[in-house]
Specification:
Number of strands: 46
Distance between the termini: 57 Å
Largest sheet: 24 strands, mixed
Strand content: 25-35%
Radius of gyration: 30 Å
Number of helices: 15
């Protein structure tokens, strides 16, 4: 696929589009004219149409842009700004990378907001569109037990909390806090540091925001509704669980959804706000962490209703209903080829923070339910058992299946369609990873066509990697064929299933051989061959599409990258890992690659380096984009490495290992929107919007620059520009008109330090800034974004835009405050103990 483009009159046209327009014009000529032109040997007429094709393609692009500008859904930046001006939409602070157009949904719904402004429902929808986050609006006067004059006593809100349902502590302080409150006359938001805030006033309105973005793996349709069974191919896109090893020992029936051994995976509720349009947002609609108690109460009621032969006594908006579910469990028994979808009533919601006692215990295959039926003289006691398939903990992502019935095989495979959350789309997950700079449509381009392998064990193998795609059963098989056939070409290894693969038999590592002067892309993605539509024109050069969405593949073995066989004079190749989760790190062998790219990848090796170079690399270019990485140790006393290391929108953490989180003594390092949790030592450094939690040491400080970043005391860096805490210290000294005392300087430094919700790699809020983080860090990045890996989320700008809209959309005399309802792992643990 050609990546060349032509820019003219402000339109950037890909060369392939220009050539297609020229071919279309040339095809309009009579056949004998084209034949004479091509047989003459000069091809002058064809060359002339090549020039005309540029103008034709430009006209077509302008017409398409004009048609797109007619609709808010497709309008470009300039056209969307014009639409916003047409409806009188207020100007929002531009978000970097958003072309200054703000939120498209906000512009589209401006008129609808104005028709109902002043109501909580409209403010809620407006806040969600303006920020791009889930929002819940609370009118706090409804939470008051009585007003100040005591004439409006509310019997439905007693003066004492009702603790029996068990949800009181879990929802305290959130948007769904139902505790009765007394009057508070303080402002709903903290107007300045040190000034207390109070929510519960008759004039106070709270806008509660949830920052994590949620990505869901699709739930496959059930082929046999009566039996609830699915084939292995139908659940290929559903993530599989791995054995839950306890003290290094795997036990039958124990599984975990986290792919890192011994880790946890916090399950989230999918975003279901679109299922109830026009209604106020409820807890079951929000993309938030799942809690045990609400799910336990609903599944228990579903079991009771089934046994008592009645309708469930549940609210209209349920966790498990026809519109969706928080998760769906599929089980496969040993020797069977199909999966069974487990009904919600057959799932027990339990606490699996620690292993069950005694060791290896498993839940019973049934649960007893007792109730009373009306009788002629007295209630009639009833007792019946309901089947149970498994016990699941949504807080840890751990599952224990029940003992198999006599004569039946045990469950050996568990897959769960679920949703996970993160502050941004970082690391491996179900999110959309398609971007214009990555291969999407695969075509035959002369003699340099790509080689395509599809790893899918549910489909019969075969095909050709050169002309279409070749299907193989394992990643190891695909890599072995790439090593033999991939020299001088770009090889695409597409992992079409959400599976996990260990090292081949007899090997301790999974080797990736990169032939010289070639590219190897290992991508978790779907492969879609072109559709053949009757009576429709087909493209003979089109081979298929690479769709980077709803796929995540786990490599559960150390990955070793080695150089393939070939002429020693040829340059080393390039390796790209996209959408993978590596549980035991990557080793770069001697002269293995000239380029190594990690993209939307989670790379961990707890207690050791996640990415390391075990041999010399000359002039290597290593890039890490939108990833979560353990320690990066590239180069050292025994491995001479030179070149460049570039990190963007990435979190780097020590992950329990000693030493530096980032060590690249021979590389020139470039960081943009990066959070480094731990110390760092590099050769040369250029950094923007970067947070170093511990000192960083740079060898060559004559070159490079650190901009809009947090650089701890004790660091040795090149020149800095608007970095904290140096900027805060300078301003404090300027305000005092004298040098600061050591105590004053320490106080300023402490007030400027970044605060995180979580620093544990297992938590979805890893490296997210805490709501109490100082503004010098939250808005101290370039363009007033926050420093660190979540700079692109621009949460501070979103909140500022929301504040600017309150004056227009709130009634007179009401005051509103923005409240961050994002919970850390510690807070969540306390709220899950009712």
């Amino acid at each position: 696929m050609s990546s060349a483009s032509t820019e003219t009159c402000g339109v950037d046209l890909p060369q392939s589009r220009v050539e297609a327009a020229a071919d279309a014009l040339y095809a309009l000529l009579p056949a004998h004219v084209r034949h004479s032109d091509l047989t003459s040997g000069s091809g002058a007429l064809r060359a002339l149409f090549g020039v005309l094709g540029l103008a034709s393609a430009e006209i077509d692009a302008e017409i398409e842009a004009w048609h797109d500008a007619l609709f808010v859904e497709t309008a470009g930046p300039a056209a969307l700004a014009a639409i916003a001006a047409l409806v009188g939409g207020p100007a929002l602070h531009p978000v970097p990378g958003d072309a200054g157009i703000g939120r498209r949904a906000f512009v589209a719904n401006t008129i609808r907001y104005r028709r109902g402004k002043g109501t909580a429902r409209v403010v809620e929808a407006m806040a969600a569109d303006a920020t791009g986050l889930a929002a819940v609006v609370v009118e706090y006067y409804q939470r008051l037990a009585r007003c100040g004059h005591l004439l409006d006593v509310r019997p439905e809100r007693p003066a004492t909390a009702r603790l029996t349902p068990g949800r009181t502590a879990a929802s305290a302080g959130s948007a769904f806090d139902r505790l009765p409150r007394l009057l508070d006359v303080r402002h709903v938001e903290r107007l300045r540091p040190g000034l207390p805030a109070g929510r519960h006033a008759p004039t106070a309105v709270g806008v509660h925001l949830l920052r994590p973005l949620v990505a869901s793996f699709p739930v496959p349709a059930v082929a046999d509704a009566a039996a609830d069974t699915l084939t292995a191919a139908a659940v290929a896109a559903v993530p599989g669980a791995r054995p839950w090893a306890i003290e290094g020992s795997e036990r039958p029936g124990y599984f975990q959804l986290a792919q890192q051994p011994g880790s946890v995976l916090r399950l989230f509720n999918p975003d279901r706000r679109a299922d109830a349009p026009g209604a106020r947002v409820q807890e079951v609609d929000l993309p938030d962490r799942l809690r045990r108690l609400p799910l336990h109460q609903e599944t228990a009621e579903l079991r009771a209703a089934r046994l008592e032969n009645r309708a469930p006594r549940l609210p209209a908006r349920r966790w498990f209903d026809g519109a969706g579910a928080p998760f769906t469990v599929f089980l496969r028994r040993d020797g069977e080829n199909t999966f069974r979808r487990v009904a919600p009533a057959e799932i027990r919601i339990v606490d699996l923070e620690s292993p069950p006692v005694p060791a290896g215990a498993r839940p019973a295959a049934w649960i007893e339910h007792r109730w009373y039926d009306p009788g002629p003289a007295a209630p009639v006691p009833r007792n019946e058992n309901h089947p149970i398939a498994c016990a699941l903990d949504p807080v840890t992502g751990r599952i224990v299946v029940t003992e198999p019935p006599d004569g039946q095989p045990d469950v050996v495979e568990v897959r769960v369609a679920c949703a996970t959350g993160a502050g941004r789309a970082l690391g491996a997950g179900a999110g959309d990873r398609n971007t214009p700079d990555q291969p999407f449509d695969i075509r035959d381009d002369g003699g340099t066509q790509d080689l395509v392998w599809v790893v899918d064990p549910t489909v019969a193998g075969g095909g050709s990697a050169r002309t279409g795609s070749r299907t193989v059963g394992t990643l190891s098989d695909a890599l072995a064929e790439v090593a033999l056939e991939g020299a001088g070409r770009r090889s695409l290894v597409l992992l079409a299933c959400c599976d996990r693969e260990a090292a081949p038999a007899g090997s301790a590592t999974l080797d990736v051989t990169v032939p010289p002067a070639s590219e190897v892309h290992v991508v978790a993605a779907q492969w879609r061959p072109p559709r053949v539509v009757p009576d429709a024109e087909t493209d003979p050069d089109l081979r298929g599409f690479v769709v980077r969405r709803e796929r995540r593949f786990t490599v559960d073995a150390p990955v070793r990258v080695v150089r393939g066989a070939g002429d020693v004079g040829l340059p080393a190749g390039r390796l790209v890992l996209d959408g993978l989760e590596l549980t035991r790190g990557v080793d770069l062998g001697a002269d293995a690659v000239a380029g190594f790219d990690l993209r939307y990848t989670t790379v961990r090796a707890p207690g050791a380096a996640a990415v390391r170079a075990e041999g010399p690399l000359a002039a290597a270019r290593i890039t890490v984009d939108r990833s979560i990485c353990g320690p990066l140790r590239i180069g050292g006393p025994n491995a001479s490495v030179s070149g460049e290391l570039s990190l963007t929108d990435t979190v780097v953490t020590t992950d329990g290992a000693g030493g530096d989180a980032l060590a690249a003594s021979g590389l020139d390092v470039s960081l943009c929107n990066v959070t480094v949790i731990g110390t760092a030592s590099v050769r040369a450094l250029s950094a923007t919007n970067t947070v170093f939690t511990e000192p960083v040491q740079v060898t060559r400080r004559q070159i490079g620059c650190v901009r809009y970043s947090f650089v701890p005391t004790g660091s040795a860096t090149p020149r800095t520009f608007r970095c904290q805490p140096a900027l805060a210290l300078s301003r404090a000294a300027e305000a005092a008109r004298r040098p600061l005392t050591p105590a004053e300087a320490d106080s300023v430094r402490l007030a400027s330090e970044p605060r995180f919700l979580d620093t544990r790699t297992d938590e979805p809020t890893l490296a997210m800034l805490h709501p109490l983080c100082p503004d010098s860090v939250r808005s101290g990045g370039e363009g007033e974004v926050e420093m660190g890996a979540f700079a692109g989320a621009a949460y501070g700008i979103a909140v500022a835009n929301l504040h600017a809209l309150f004056e227009e959309y709130l009634p007179v005399a009401l005051e509103a405050g923005v409240i961050d309802d994002t919970r850390s792992g510690a807070i969540t643990a306390r709220r899950n103990r009712p």
